[in-house]
Every structure is written in C-alpha cells, then in structure tokens.
C-alpha cells in the first residue's frame, strides 16, 4: 500500500502490494514486454535496475528510459521479478520451429501393379512435426488393406496388387503430404499417383517401301495403352548389329533418333535383304522386350 514501509530483501516479506510507480514508467514497462514478444526475446540490457533509473533496448529498437523511478526496495524487487518472469515465459520456447520439408514427394508417381511404390515425405521442426496424408479436398487418407498403407514414419505405401484389385480412388488419386506441429502447418505440392496394371502387349515393325538411294525410316509400333511407359532403347539387325539412340554407324548410314525411329541412308538393293527389330524398356518395371515382328526394306 502506498506509504507503507518496505523492508529489504533479506528482511521479513514485504507487506506492501504496490509501491509508488509513476504511470509513465508503467507505460514503458508495457512497451518493454511488447518488444520482447515482437523481437522474439532478442538481447536486451537493463541499466541501473536497482537505482533510480533504468533503460531497455531490444534488438536495436529505440531505447526507452524511465528516469527517477522512485520506489522502495519492494518495488524494485517487484520490477525485477516481472522482468525475470517475462524472460522465462517468452524465451523458454525460443527453440521452437515450424515444420520444413526434408524430403517433399514428387509431383508425379507412376508405378506398376507388379512392383508397388513408396512415396516418401519427411519434415523437421521443433516440436517434431506430425505427418498426415490428405486428399485434394482436405480429407485424411487412411489404410486400405492390401492396397494402401500410411506408415508412422510418414511414408505412403502402395503394395503390389492383382489387376482385379485395382481401385481408382486409391490408384489414380491426388494426394498431399501435410506436416504440422504447434508452431505451424505446411502442405506439399500435389502428388499425382497413377498405378499401371500390367497387360499383355506386342511391339511391331512393319516393312518400309523406299526408292533406291533415298533414306528409309523404320518405326517401332507401340500399343497406345503402354506407350507412356516404354522407351525405345535400340534397334538390332538379323545379323546381330545393334544401333543405339543418337549414335551414327557406318559413316552415318544408320541413325536412331530420340523418337526411336531408325534412319537408313542411301539404301541399296543389298539393304533389302536385311530385317530389323526394335527393343524397348519399361520405365516402371525395367522389363526389356524385343518386337514380335521384323521389318524389311522394300527397294523400288
């Protein structure tokens, strides 16, 4: 109470509730606490806390001063306790950090039903973020026995499955990885998952009609339903010669373009006695396959 005697720290507990503090000093104290919050507990110094004036500086902000602070030892102790409490409250969580992706999943994940797939998503932060998989509409993704598993480490697993077990809502879906802790929430890019069911197919090479001395172009005919996943890696002749992409052979007579076509320049009647096959590689399964038919040049 104003006017009540205030004892020293070493004496009996101080009985006063409020010691005379000027209103302007209270305003400066509020500003100081605001700066602590705003500048995330940056370095500050207290000058002459137990004297008759003090000043505060937070992260280079304008120094605020309260001159001639007239109070007894109880008021000084109370002020010191306030600063101590504020530092403890506002600085104890200084190590917290919002989530950040360590490994963000790719925008597109294609896989074969014979191999399955694992979509990885990991994040760091303090506290450690929780990984949650959601759909594009924001609903959480759960386990589907034998088809989809959400692991505790954040991975989204698609096991191998039979063709008859294909489910569009599982195997042709847009997924989003969400990482969250009490500091914040982040979302990954859209993850477009597509499972490809293995189907029987054949590659073909048709005969090509060409004028003598011109350039012949042989094409590897791939079924449309598997075309996105096959890469033409080479052509082979019946004599065992191999022609790879972007390489010239026999002084430029043979060339395989990036599109997979085989160009044969300056054809002669002798070229009409040879046959050619294409070889592909499945980018999901790694399987290589030779065309079922052989193509020949018909020289006219």
UniProtKB/TrEMBL annotation:
Q: Record's superkingdom?
A: Eukaryota
Specify the taxonomic lineage: Eukaryota, Metazoa, Ecdysozoa, Arthropoda, Hexapoda
**Can the keyword Hydrolase be found in this entry's annotation?**
no
Q: What organism does the record attribute this protein to?
A: Melanaphis sacchari
Keywords assigned by UniProt, alphabetized: Disulfide bond, Repeat
The GO terms describing molecular function are: cell-cell adhesion mediator activity
| Stretches assigned to the Ig-like domain | 99-192, 198-291
Name the GO cellular-component terms. axon; plasma membrane
Query: Is Nucleotide-binding included in the keywords of this UniProt record?
Result: no
What name is this protein filed under? Answer: Down syndrome cell adhesion molecule-like protein Dscam2
A Gene Ontology biological process term: axon guidance
Q: Which InterPro entries match?
A: Ig-like_dom, Ig-like_dom_sf, Ig-like_fold
């Amino acid at each position: 109470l104003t006017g009540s005697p205030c004892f020293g720290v070493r004496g009996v507990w101080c009985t006063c509730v409020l010691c005379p503090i000027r209103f302007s000093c209270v305003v400066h104290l509020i500003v100081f606490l605001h700066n602590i919050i705003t500048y995330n507990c940056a370095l500050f110094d207290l000058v002459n806390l137990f004297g008759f004036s003090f000043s505060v500086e937070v992260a280079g902000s304008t120094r605020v001063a309260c001159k001639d602070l007239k109070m007894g030892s109880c008021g000084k102790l109370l002020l010191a306790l306030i600063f101590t409490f504020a530092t403890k409250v506002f600085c104890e969580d200084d190590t917290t950090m919002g989530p950040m992706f360590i490994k963000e999943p790719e925008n597109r994940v294609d896989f074969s039903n014979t191999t399955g797939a694992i979509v990885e998503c990991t994040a760091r932060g303090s506290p450690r973020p929780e990984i949650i998989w959601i759909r594009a509409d924001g609903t959480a993704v759960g386990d589907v026995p034998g088809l989809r598993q959400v692991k505790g480490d954040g991975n989204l697993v698609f096991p191998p499955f039979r063709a008859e077990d294909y489910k569009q809502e599982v195997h042709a879906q847009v997924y989003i990885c969400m990482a969250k802790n009490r500091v914040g929430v982040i979302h990954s890019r859209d993850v477009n998952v597509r499972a490809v069911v293995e189907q029987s197919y054949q590659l073909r090479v048709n005969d090509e009609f060409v004028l003598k001395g011109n350039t012949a172009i042989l094409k590897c005919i791939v079924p449309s339903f598997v075309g996105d996943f096959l890469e033409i890696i080479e052509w082979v002749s019946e004599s065992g010669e191999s022609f790879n992409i972007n390489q010239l052979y026999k002084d430029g007579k043979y060339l395989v373009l990036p599109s997979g076509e085989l160009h044969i320049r300056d054809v002669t009647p002798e070229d009409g006695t040879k046959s050619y096959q294409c070889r592909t590689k499945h980018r999901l399964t790694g399987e290589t396959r030779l065309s079922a038919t052989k193509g020949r040049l018909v020289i006219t």
